[in-house]
Amino acid sequence: MTAIASRRSARTLSVRAGAAALGRAGRAVTWYVRELMGDTAYRTYLEHHAATHGAEVEPLTEREFWRGRMDEQDQNPGARCC
Q1: In this structure, are 45 and 77 located in the same domain?
Q2: 46: closest CA among 28, 27, 64?
Q3: Gyration radius of the chain over CA positions
Q4: What is the Cα–Cα distance from 47 to 54, expressed in whole angstroms?
Q5: Block means of pLDDT (10 residues each) for the chain, length 82 residues?
Q6: Could you tell me which residues come within 8 angstroms of residue 40 by beta carbon, excluding any fewer than 6 positions away?
């Protein structure tokens, strides 16, 4: 391998590593924002409900879940911006 080809190869690996790191960072930020905004709350509730109650108790519908969550936040606002 020539010196020029070796430098190109190293540069290509460096660019690929940077792109992979950028992709991981983007996925991490997306996950954080979704968790922060509560986008996964209903799915988390369903997983908890299945583990805790199994099939013996019917889970809330998504609409019922969000209505209850909003009512709870209205009754106990805690520390939030809005």
Answers
A1: yes
A2: 64
A3: 23
A4: 10
A5: 63 83 91 85 93 90 94 81 62
A6: 34
